[in-house]
Design a protein that fits this description.
Blueprint: E1 5-9, H1 14-25, E2 29-34, E3 47-51, H2 63-71, E4 76-79
Parallel strand pairs: 1-2, 1-4, 2-3
């Protein structure tokens, strides 16, 4: 059986980073959606980063397809993005 796939929006800092680390420790494949990748997960075959700025609608085009294409069907969606305003 393949690993479950979680998508974490805002998974590069703070609470989101902790969530990503917990999911990885439990064997999940994790797609991280944020403006910039975290160097902490560079080269980790269990993670994938998709660059998205939630304030720019066009950056969302195809994001779910990209997430599924790389690590399979999404099992969990976790929202940890911070409010910028």
């Amino acid at each position: 059986m393949s690993a479950q796939h979680a998508v974490v929006v805002g998974g590069t800092r703070g609470l989101g980073l902790v969530v990503v680390e917990r999911l990885l420790s439990r064997g999940f494949d994790v797609t991280i959606i944020s403006r910039r990748p975290s160097p902490r997960h560079a080269g980790n075959s269990k993670t994938r980063h998709i660059e998205v700025d939630l304030e720019i609608m066009e950056s969302l085009d195809g994001v779910w397809t990209k997430a599924c294409d790389s690590l399979g069907e999404i099992s969990y969606l976790i929202l940890c993005q911070r409010f910028r305003g």
